[in-house]
Design brief:
It is a single chain. This protein is of the alpha/beta class and 227 residues long. Helix content is 36%, strand content 13%. α1 packs across α6. The longest helix has 26 residues. It is globular, with a radius of gyration of 17 Å. The termini are far apart. 44% of the residues are buried.
């Protein structure tokens, strides 16, 4: 299992070996509370024989999506190529499942995570994500976690991704990594999330071996509400 715990940002992900589950730490702190939660998911995946990697979003600025539409002319790439999002899209192509982790500062996902998700999902037109299991994980001192998870889950549902659940909402609480390690139910939730992810990946693989392929979605109608 490969953990990117060195603090290197997404701009240096090129050349990393293919992974089974790609986990993205949306915190600027490489070893903070969000990373601690993702590590607990990773430990459960490893115990189930599933390889994974935690990719750090880094501390450098991440551009927001400006809706320019230029990515429609490109092959799964964003028009902005100076902050590592395109390298992360390439990593997504080789992954079979995803976990996106975010800290909660003001009752919603971090701005880094939202900019990252907007550009990744918009630029690659869901191709690298379609029908692949995904989960959202949130860490907070106290509140705002369920709202943050709800926001991230919306990216999954529009990309036809099975949303992986656990035995509680996918959250941990604590103001420091040491406090997160005291959140026993939160850590238990992370481990159960990892086991559920591993189970679903095996189910998908077993179905593929039996010739069960993902359905083709209709893309005929597009309703405008303003007439």
């Amino acid at each position: 299992m490969c953990y990117n715990g060195s603090g290197r940002g997404i701009d240096s992900l090129e050349g990393v070996l293919r992974v089974k589950v790609l986990m993205i730490n949306g915190s600027a702190r490489p070893n903070g509370c969000t990373f601690t939660a993702l590590m607990e998911v990773a430990s459960a995946l490893e115990a189930e024989g599933i390889s994974c990697e935690i990719a750090q979003s880094g501390s450098k600025p991440i551009r927001d999506c400006i809706g320019c539409g230029k990515c429609a002319e490109l092959d799964d790439r964003c028009a902005f190529d100076d902050d590592g999002i395109n390298a992360l899209i390439q990593r997504a192509k080789g992954a079979d499942g995803f976990v996106f982790g975010t800290p909660v500062y003001y009752a919603h996902p971090s701005g880094r995570v939202l900019s990252l998700l907007d550009r990744m999902f918009y630029a690659c037109k869901s191709g690298p994500f379609r029908h692949k299991p995904a989960a959202a994980v949130a860490s907070a001192r106290r509140a705002g976690t369920t709202a943050s998870i709800d926001v991230i889950n919306k990216y999954f549902t529009i990309a036809q991704m099975p949303v992986v659940s656990s035995t509680y909402w996918n959250m941990v609480h604590g103001n420091t990594p040491e406090e997160v390690l005291k959140d026993q139910e939160g850590l238990q939730t992370m481990r159960n999330l990892g086991r559920n992810m591993a189970w679903l990946l095996r189910c998908i693989e077993a179905g593929r071996e039996k010739g069960v392929l993902p359905p083709l979605a209709e893309k005929v109608y597009r309703t405008n509400f303003i007439r």
